């Protein structure tokens, strides 16, 4: 029996070729998110779905998808998927860990540097013709070297960010559900409570997954605990941050600046208050967006689908 595979975003055709030997590949031929109604209709006949973080795979979908065997999510995170419902309906869920670790760490540290040294603001200053001469404190930012970085969420990406911080002779603090003795030994990182990290760090970097415990973790009280010179970087999940509280903290000078690659609602509205502030560096969720890494992520999704549809165990199963 021919198997049906639905891909929810336009991807390079050649990377999907391996799937054509085991079934029919149908793809949403646009770079914009697949409409919910289309996704629900396609899911009814799908043996496999290759999904993005923007695709909600919930009980409603799973109940309709009688043939569905696997959801291969093109991301490390999977908070868009109801895991309990997936177990209930016997659907395998996979993600793409490891292959994007270093690339996302590159972007996270670049975001930290851009916010600290006001790089976006400075680049626009030149392009807008405002640069008329040199001045000692023209667009002066903050040093990064020998400062203290506080990493909230010391998973593999957090560890990779810490290695980059080590190269800048930074003191490394971290907060995590569990201690990481091997990271402490290798990098000299120090475990501390969440509050201690907020109080001591010059750069607070969020890399936590989205859970009930991390939703709105960075709220008004959290920002009040930070140094007034602190820079906040979020490359984890947008919903971990109370964006109104962040805006107020920046507006009132409770913290100095921030770099954001993720937002509560994506894409973010161009009229969002955060985007009106010069001390905010905002990116369109491009943490893993290098060509090399995105290709590896797609290849891993394809391999997971191949394995499940041919009766083998997937390579990176979540459930």
TrEMBL record:
Transmembrane segments: none annotated. Its EC number is 1.1.1.-. Residues 109-287 form the D-isomer specific 2-hydroxyacid dehydrogenase NAD-binding domain. It is an enzyme of class 1 (oxidoreductase). Keywords: Oxidoreductase. InterPro entries: D-isomer_2-hydroxyacid_DH, D-isomer_2_OHA_DH_cat_dom, D-isomer_DH_CS1, D-isomer_DH_NAD-bd, NAD(P)-bd_dom_sf. The keyword Oxidoreductase applies. It comes from the Bacteria. Pfam families: 2-Hacid_dh, 2-Hacid_dh_C. One of its GO terms (molecular function) is oxidoreductase activity. Residues 5-318 form the D-isomer specific 2-hydroxyacid dehydrogenase catalytic domain. Belongs to the D-isomer specific 2-hydroxyacid dehydrogenase family. This is D-glycerate dehydrogenase. It comes from Aeribacillus composti.
């Amino acid at each position: 029996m021919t198997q049906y595979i639905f891909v929810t975003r336009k991807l390079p055709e050649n990377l999907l070729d391996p799937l054509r030997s085991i079934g029919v590949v149908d793809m949403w031929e646009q770079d914009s998110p697949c409409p919910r109604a289309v996704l629900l209709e396609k899911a009814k006949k799908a043996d496999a779905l290759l999904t993005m973080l923007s695709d909600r795979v919930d009980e409603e979908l799973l109940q309709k998808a009688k043939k569905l065997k696997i959801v291969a999510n093109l991301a490390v995170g999977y908070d868009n998927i109801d895991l309990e419902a997936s177990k209930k309906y016997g659907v395998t869920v996979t993600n793409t860990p490891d292959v994007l670790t270093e690339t996302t760490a590159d972007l996270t540290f670049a975001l930290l540097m851009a916010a600290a040294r006001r790089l976006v603001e400075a680049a626009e200053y030149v392009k807008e013709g405002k640069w008329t001469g040199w001045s000692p404190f023209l667009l002066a930012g903050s040093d990064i070297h020998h400062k203290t970085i506080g990493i909230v969420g010391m998973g593999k990406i957090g560890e990779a960010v810490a290695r980059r911080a080590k190269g800048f002779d930074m003191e490394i603090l971290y907060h995590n559900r569990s201690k990481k003795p091997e990271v402490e030994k290798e990098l000299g990182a120090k475990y501390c409570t969440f509050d201690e990290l907020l109080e001591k760090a010059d750069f607070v970097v969020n890399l936590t997954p989205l859970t009930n415990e991390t939703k709105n973790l960075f709220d008004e009280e959290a920002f009040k605990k930070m140094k007034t010179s602190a820079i906040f970087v979020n490359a984890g999940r947008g919903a971990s941050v109370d964006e109104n509280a962040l805006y107020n903290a920046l507006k009132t000078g409770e913290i100095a600046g921030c770099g954001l690659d993720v937002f509560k609602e994506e894409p973010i509205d161009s009229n969002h208050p955060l985007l009106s502030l010069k001390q905010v560096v905002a990116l369109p969720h491009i943490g893993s967006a290098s060509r090399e890494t995105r290709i590896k992520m797609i290849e891993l999704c394809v391999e997971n689908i191949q394995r499940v549809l041919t009766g083998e165990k997937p390579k990176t199963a979540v459930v």
